[in-house]
């Protein structure tokens, strides 16, 4: 496993950078802080299926400044504890706009969550799989480069991003599909990467254990984590970057470290980063110092 923070990353956390951080004296921020800011709209809202909450928002770089493409792509999955009561795609709008300005396209997908009729097992998982594979259809119309793609998710979306990247390991499961789309890498931001561990030892801020139980309640088998929890499908043979905030009260950093160690032991290439002075939502705030470090990992995996 690479060192938790490279020298370059450590330099980004020095006093001069923190002095420019609007949240340095008020950590950690909440999702409401992000939603209080002005947000730019996506370029297109596209249905990837005909079911409930089966759509995504496509963000494309400006051709006048970024060229004609094809553009590298981030497949973005929002969090929210898998619950319909918490905001969805808009939580990622700040990151999407920043990536777009840097010449990176974003497919910001949503999916049925707990509280939606088809949320939980299997609907949540089937929709994320369908949306991820839908990038092949998007590439037929839009200038995106499927050879340069990263899956990235925050919190519960981190769980789903890892799960989507690991689908090639699913065999005896109703969720297995032939030829699932495989990205160059996957990044989890405060991801709930091990459902069983989070259910047992999570701090309760996501409603666990009840929320995890509800997510997998429809599972037909005796091993409900086998095809729903990323740690059960290692090695996934996709490079992974596991990022946590040291001040995160929702998914504390020990969960990221534990999963990263397990994935590395299984044989996967893993980078684990714990960011000082960052909570849960600083990881999706492009004005926070954390974003510079996350962005460097995105660009590395995309080959930028």
Commentary on this structure:
It is a single chain. Helix 6 (123-133) packs across helix 8. Helices cover 31% and strands 16% of the residues. It has 12 helices and 8 strands. It has helices at residues 7-12, 15-19, 31-35, 63-66, 93-101, 123-133, 135-138, 156-165, 195-201, 210-215, 253-266, 289-302, and strands at 44-47, 55-59, 71-77, 105-109, 144-154, 185-189, 239-245, 270-275. The protein has 304 residues and is an alpha/beta fold. It has one domain: Rossmann fold (3-Layer(aba) Sandwich). The protein has an 8-stranded mixed β-sheet with strand order 1-2-4-3-5-6-7-8, with helices on both faces.
What is this structure, in a nutshell?
With 304 residues, the chain is of the alpha/beta class. The protein has helices at residues 7-12, 15-19, 31-35, 63-66, 93-101, 123-133, 135-138, 156-165, 195-201, 210-215, 253-266, 289-302, and strands at residues 44-47, 55-59, 71-77, 105-109, 144-154, 185-189, 239-245, 270-275.
Which secondary structure elements does this structure contain, and how are they paired or packed?
Blueprint: H1 7-12, H2 15-19, H3 31-35, E1 44-47, E2 55-59, H4 63-66, E3 71-77, H5 93-101, E4 105-109, H6 123-133, H7 135-138, E5 144-154, H8 156-165, E6 185-189, H9 195-201, H10 210-215, E7 239-245, H11 253-266, E8 270-275, H12 289-302
Helix pairs in contact: 6-8
Report the span from N to C terminus. Answer: 22 Å
Major sheet characteristics: 8 strands, mixed
Give the overall average pLDDT: 91
Low-confidence sequence ranges:
1-24
Task: Give the spatial strand order of the biggest sheet.
Answer: 1-2-4-3-5-6-7-8
Spell out the CATH superfamily. Alpha/Beta hydrolase fold, catalytic domain
User: What's the CATH topology name?
Assistant: Rossmann fold
What's the CATH architecture name?
A: 3-Layer(aba) Sandwich
By secondary-structure content and strand pairing, the structural class works out as: alpha/beta
